[in-house]
Write a structure and sequence with these properties.
20 strands; about 220 residues; 7-stranded antiparallel beta sheet; globular; disordered C terminus; 10-stranded mixed beta sheet
């Protein structure tokens, strides 16, 4: 390609529209707080509240929130903390990137006419990447209801997990095939809203209802089920 052609291609690429999409709180139960960035104070979440990029949502005991993030609906379970890192549309692709620091989230990723969805939910240990499906993710283990999810460790070594299956990652080792996942148990530490400022932390034992690996149980026993 000539220099002129290369310059023209770069100009076309930079001229492609990038549309910012909306993330908002659709419902709140119990104590749910939000901060708009890492230095902002925590404020009470309310139905209809919009979330800017970089915002973090935190839920307390027996609390949960539902978010609409572009084409996805997320249920943030009790004792969870999650940050919105990216949400935009470009060239017919909706890109969503969220980081789950602790807790559990259920995501229903819908397809929209004329648009393709690339949804990623990561944690310090693993990443769940999907294109239109329903699943739950607790930072280590993914459970898929519909469609298919690619679960990867921190080195991007991953496996596909289909409907009715689950798999987990310890962060270092590649996730096993879903049929090889094993039950395990551990105690985890969860931050409640404002915990970073007060130093108050809550510990809870997780209750296993699905296969997992690496000494991590799956469901919080104090969610009131």
């Amino acid at each position: 390609m000539t220099r002129t052609g290369l310059l023209g291609a770069l100009l076309i690429a930079t001229a492609l529209p990038v549309l910012a999409l909306e993330a908002r709180v659709s419902s709140v139960q119990g104590k749910v707080e939000i901060r708009t960035d890492s230095t902002a104070p925590w404020i009470a979440a309310a139905e209809g509240m919009r979330l800017p990029l970089g915002a973090t949502i935190s839920t307390g005991f027996n609390s949960q929130a539902e978010l609409v993030v572009g084409p996805a609906t997320l249920q943030v379970r009790a004792l969870s903390r999650m940050r919105l890192d990216e949400l935009m549309e470009r060239e017919g692709v909706v890109q969503s990137d969220l980081h789950l620091q602790v807790g559990r989230v259920r995501a229903d990723v819908r397809s929209a006419e004329g648009l393709r969805s690339e949804f990623r939910l990561s944690s310090p240990i693993a990443t769940a990447a999907v294109r239109g499906t329903s699943f739950e993710f607790d930072g280590t283990t993914v459970q898929v209801d519909q469609g298919s999810v690619r679960l990867a460790n921190q080195y991007n070594e991953g496996v596909p997990v289909g409907a009715g299956e689950s798999s987990g990652s310890t962060g270092d080792e590649p996730p096993p095939p879903p049929s090889e996942s094993r039950e395990a148990a551990a105690i985890v530490v969860a931050f409640t809203p404002g915990a970073e400022e007060s130093g108050d932390r809550q510990e809870g034992v997780l209750e296993s209802s699905a296969p997992t690996t690496g000494g991590i149980r799956v469901n919080w026993s104090f969610e009131g089920h």
